[in-house]
Design a protein that fits this description.
This protein is an alpha/beta fold and 319 residues long. It has a single domain, classed as Rossmann fold (3-Layer(aba) Sandwich), CATH 3.40.50. The chain has 14 helices and seven strands. β5 and β6 form a beta hairpin. α1 packs antiparallel against α2 and α8 crosses α11. It starts with 10 loop residues before the first helix and ends in a 5-residue tail after the last helix. The structure holds 2-acetamido-2-deoxy-beta-D-glucopyranose (3 copies). The site of one 2-acetamido-2-deoxy-beta-D-glucopyranose has 5 residues, from α12. It comes from Crenichthys baileyi. GO terms for molecular function: thiolester hydrolase activity. It catalyses: S-hexadecanoyl-N-acetylcysteamine + H2O = N-acetylcysteamine + hexadecanoate + H(+).
Length: 319
């Protein structure tokens, strides 16, 4: 266990090895939570992107490290001429556990119509169990398919406005988990500020919706301060969406924008929940930790399979 081989190589080799491991060994796993009517199968491509990219990065960073201009040219040149062995860190899967991409498999497909707080409880349990295995932290990537949202919010039965999908389940999990170790929360096309229908039933929304107004802190409740603190434990919030989504309405809801009563879209920073900082969004933004990524040409069901979206909006945060 004590690296019996250290005495064999010059210190430079050791140093490079440590650097390489330190740099590539720290990838955090990405927990994926799907949306309504989705299941884990839909995310096979995304988890493949993540795994492949990480494997490639390990190799390319390793190569870069091994040709870094040395402080002591002489010595490192010698080292290089011996040929830096790729083996210790050239087999990425062994080097860093961060290639793990657990997809939470709960409430798949039609089961995702269960009351949201019931789902949140179970998702929280599953996510917490996963987080415990990775004390260094995890990333949480949540996708929302808002089909049900549309159904529910246009329904007259406002008691059933238990709206709204994967990204919101994740927000509720973050809010209600005092010990979570989520580093980056990535919301992939989720109706974070609600969905079409809400502004016309504003009073009903606040009265009857037992989910979003609580998570948004738009309706007072006794956990509001605790929930806000829990949300602020994250290091980064990444909001992804775009105008050609076709399902999230308004699409700006993926970035916390929403209609006013004239159906003009009010952007995140002019929303009351932002200005009042009811759940920490303003604080996160002031910290510089809210990243918005707008991509055109992506339909709702393609967000998680589009490699350009992955490289433009997701990849750089999965450290
Ligand atoms: C995954 O990618 C393949 C090849 O591009 C595509 O045919 C398939 O539909 C994708 N899967 C999903 C769930 O989007
Ligand atoms: C924001 O604060 C104002 C003034 O205290 C209050 O009237 C309003 O209801 C709050 N709105 C939200 C969404 O918290
Ligand atoms: C993939 O995303 C890019 C923008 O990020 C978009 O231009 C392109 O149309 C998308 N392709 C598909 C098949 O969704």
């Amino acid at each position: 266990m004590r690296a019996p081989r250290t005495s064999r190589g010059p210190p430079a080799v050791l140093l490079m090895l440590l650097l390489a491991v330190g740099c590539t060994g720290g990838y955090k796993p990405v927990i994926i939570v799907h949306g309504i009517f989705d299941g884990p199968k839909q995310f096979e491509n995304l988890s493949m992107f993540i795994k492949k990219q990480r494997d490639l990065n390990v190799v390319s960073k390793t190569v870069k490290r091994s040709v870094l201009p040395p402080k002591d040219k002489h010595q490192t040149h010698k080292t290089n001429s011996k040929g830096p062995s790729m083996e210790p860190w050239g087999t990425p899967k062994k080097v860093h556990p961060g290639t793990e991409v657990p997809i939470i498999s709960l409430y798949n497909y039609k089961c995702s119509l269960k009351p949201l707080w019931v789902q949140v409880q179970d998702f929280r349990k599953a996510i917490e169990d996963t987080m415990k295995k990775f004390p260094e932290g995890v990333h949480l990537l949540c996708f929302s398919q808002a089909v049900t949202v549309a159904v529910i919010t246009t329904s007259a039965d406002l008691d059933n406005v238990e709206s709204v999908a994967g990204g919101l389940i994740c927000r509720a999990v973050l809010s209600t988990s005092p010990n979570h170790n989520v580093h980056t929360f990535i919301s992939l096309s989720s109706p974070l500020a609600g969905q079409y229908g809400d502004p016309h039933h504003r009073a009903g929304y606040l009265r009857s919706n037992t989910f979003l107004p609580l998570v948004n802190g738009e309706k007072p409740h006794k956990f509001i301060t605790d929930w806000r603190e829990n949300v602020l434990r994250i290091k980064k919030m990444v909001l992804i969406g775009g105008p050609d989504d076709g399902v999230i309405t308004p699409w700006q809801s993926s970035h916390y924008g929403f209609y006013d009563t004239n159906e003009d879209v009010v952007e995140m920073r002019n929303q009351e929940f932002y200005k009042n900082d009811t759940f920490g969004l303003k604080t996160l933004d002031a910290r510089g930790d809210v990243s918005v990524c707008v991509q055109s040409g992506v339909e709702h069901t393609h967000w998680h399979s589009n490699f350009t979206v992955f490289t433009n909006c997701i990849e750089k945060w999965l450290i």
